[in-house]
């Protein structure tokens, strides 16, 4: 069952399709806006990350190896001052912790009452690209990684950090993140449930639209998508080597091979992350964790495909209007034995762009 719910954004009404019985819960496919790239972090979002043991144990292994006796920079420490406190626990000499959001910064300050925290941690309010520290840090922990790896601006933020905040030989955690993409049809990602926003995602949708001042075609974040909807293996469409070559903009072309009959109207993307070069990777599709997957629409209608058909996909990321968060653009050509070649494209800017441009967005915002 779905119901239309009206949100009032800057004096105008925006109608949203909601599944009132569906909230984000383990193992249930649920839809919300991709929110990590926007200033929408609330207590529930931080709790989901602080309780994410799959993620946290990988970060802890890296900090345990790297931080003892060193100066550490924690970019985007969040309301729980998490990696700054863990760095102290693993013997860091001095820690700078930066947090952009005022309320998160205020809540992070409460953790300074813990033993050793106030002596070793300097908590700074603001975005890392506008703050200064001295001395430079030898280790940087930056959990500003999105479900779409680069969406939170990690490339621009880390490029600035290397230039102004870090020593020449500084090590960054995580070490490497990639985004994979596979062919899917949107409605199939929800198995037998309706394709509608989860009731508990409405608050994030409202915050994002109010932040922008108007509705726009938000990126669609799907937790626990039905795996049967993926009609082929994932291929890497975005690479962030945080201790290597880290371009601010990138373009990657891949050929996705359809491996069984079904329907395709877009691609599902998800994160794979390594905290250390030799560490166990975290694959957000294979693991229950705080990261989800992001669906990008391409074709206006579902295209029938057979095993052996091909989807040629190019994903381009360019710096958005704030010079930090990327805009994404997808170009695709679907080659099918039955219907020949069909092309499609989709633009997903960080901010703005069109509203109700694609049939999936017209369905979700009726
Ligand atoms: C994904 S959360 C991670 C929170 C915490 N570090 C953790 O791992 O649980 C990202 C946090 O970084 C903050 N943030 C993002 N970019 C930032 C930047 N360039 N400088 C300072 N804070 C930033 C956000 O406000 C948010 O609190």
Automatic annotation (TrEMBL):
Residues 344-366 are annotated as: Disordered. It comes from the Bacteria. InterPro entries: Arg_MeTrfase, SAM-dependent_MTases_sf. This is Class I SAM-dependent methyltransferase. The lineage of its organism: Bacteria, Bacillati, Actinomycetota, Actinomycetes, Micromonosporales.
């Amino acid at each position: 069952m779905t119901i239309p719910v009206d949100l009032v954004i800057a004096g105008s009404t925006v109608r949203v399709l909601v599944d009132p019985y569906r909230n984000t819960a383990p193992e249930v496919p649920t839809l919300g806006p991709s929110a990590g790239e926007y200033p929408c972090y609330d207590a529930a979002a931080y709790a989901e990350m602080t309780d994410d043991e799959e993620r946290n144990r990988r970060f802890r292994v890296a900090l345990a190896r790297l931080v003892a006796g060193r100066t550490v920079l924690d970019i985007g420490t969040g309301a729980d001052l998490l990696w700054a406190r863990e760095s102290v626990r693993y013997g860091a000499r001095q820690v700078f912790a930066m947090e952009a959001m005022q309320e998160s910064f205020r809540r992070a300050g409460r953790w300074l009452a813990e033993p050793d925290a106030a002596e070793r941690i300097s908590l700074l309010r603001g975005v890392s690209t506008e703050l200064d520290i001295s001395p430079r840090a030898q280790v940087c922990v930056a959990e500003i990684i999105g479900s779409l790896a680069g969406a939170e601006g990690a490339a621009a933020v880390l490029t600035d950090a290397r230039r102004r905040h870090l020593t020449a030989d500084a090590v960054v955690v995580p070490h490497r993140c990639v985004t994979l993409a596979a062919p899917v049809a949107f409605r199939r990602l929800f198995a037998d449930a309706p394709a509608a926003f989860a009731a508990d995602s409405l608050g994030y949708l409202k915050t994002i639209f109010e932040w922008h001042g108007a509705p726009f075609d938000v990126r669609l974040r799907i937790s626990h998508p039905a795996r049967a909807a993926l009609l082929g293996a994932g291929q890497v469409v975005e690479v962030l080597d945080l201790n290597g070559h880290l371009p601010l903009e990138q373009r990657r072309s891949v050929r996705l091979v359809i491996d069984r009959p079904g329907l395709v109207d877009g691609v599902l993307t998800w994160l794979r992350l390594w905290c250390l070069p030799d560490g166990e990777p975290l694959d957000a599709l294979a693991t229950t964790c705080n990261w989800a997957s992001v669906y990008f629409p391409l074709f206006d209608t579902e295209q029938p495909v057979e095993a052996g058909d091909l989807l040629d996909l190019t994903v381009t990321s360019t710096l958005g209007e704030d010079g930090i968060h990327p805009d994404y653009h997808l170009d695709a050509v679907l080659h099918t034995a039955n219907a020949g070649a069909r092309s499609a494209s989709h633009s997903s800017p960080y901010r703005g762009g069109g509203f109700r441009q694609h049939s999936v967005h017209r369905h979700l915002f009726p």
